Amino acid sequence: MEIKDIYMHRCLRLAENGRLSAPPNPMVGAVIVYKDRIIGEGYHAKCGQAHAEVNAIASVRPDDRPHLQDSTLYVSLEPCAHYGRTPPCARLILNTGIPRVVVGCEDPFDKVEGRGITMLRDGGVQVTVGVLEQECRELNRHFFTFHTKHRPYITLKWASSADGFVDSWREDEAAAPVKLSNAHSLMDVHRLRAYHQAILVGHGTLKADRPQLNVRDWVGSNPQRLVLGHVGEDELPAGFTAYADVATLLQSLTEQGIQSLLVEGGPQTQRAFIERGLWDEAIEELSPLTLGSGVPAPRLPVGIPRKVTMHWGHTLTTWRNS
């Protein structure tokens, strides 16, 4: 592994510390290196607060500050060049006198899009772009999808039995749904919720299961709770918002700046996205429990790459719709 890859890996690990609090800003990590020694590092901890580069520069000890004039700054995402909630990081780098910057990938945000790199180069900084680019883009896939496809990143999630059913047939609407997740996998579901800004079920699931759709078994904020379909005001729980169709839903979320949507609805709701090709990631939790009959699990088009892992006694299959 090349030296620059090692330091960029460190940037990525630092960036992950902002997963729960940085959105809708991207997760970014930065490392300052002088003669193969890290003299400063930082990450973007929370939207509206200092960016990774600012925190990295601020972390440099007084004895090391003279070394900034001969150091290399590694950063997982292109430094910003505009005034937002904070001043432009590219300008700070120039003022600090750091002569070399290594960037993981360009920022797709329309107020950046290469402007930070151009500002640095115009100021005499040697800039290298594209180190571990795929990993850097992957870390911020919600952010990249929102700014390139102009819609939220959409994750489909369901649990199914070993014989391919998501629930048994329930003639009694008051009957409880079959529990396919165990205590450990339920924690993973809540972790997934904490990593998304909005969560969606269909009106059928809302009526039959009365789900809370919050984060109870993980640390993080509750996602915005949404329902797809026509729901009467007397049927809509407090804190939920209903949308009549997928197009209206996605337009509203985009206008609100919501970058990620987790779809936990039943097969009909999942199909509303699958049939339109409006999904980026799908996760199926396969339980060892068999039902014999019931509501069939959603099916994705054949030929889509998938990854299969074992987790807490359940099989997790993840598809990416690239």
Description:
- Its cofactor is Zn(2+).
- In the C-terminal section; belongs to the HTP reductase family. In the N-terminal section; belongs to the cytidine and deoxycytidylate deaminase family.
- There is one protein chain.
- By secondary structure, the chain is α/β, with parallel strands linked by helices.
- It has 2 domains: 143 residues, Cytidine Deaminase, domain 2 (3-Layer(aba) Sandwich), CATH 3.40.140.10; 169 residues, Dihydrofolate Reductase, subunit A (3-Layer(aba) Sandwich), CATH 3.40.430.10.
- Helix content is 28%, strand content 25%.
- The protein has 10 helices and 15 strands.
- The strands form 3 sheets. An 8-stranded mixed β-sheet has the order 10-9-8-11-6-12-15-14. Strands 2-1-3-4-5 form a 5-stranded mixed β-sheet, sandwiched between helices.
- Helix 8 links the parallel strand 8 and strand 9.
- Helix 3 packs parallel to helix 4.
- The longest helix is centred in the N-terminal third of the chain and has 13 residues.
- The chain is elongated, with a radius of gyration of 23 Å.
- 39% of the residues are buried.
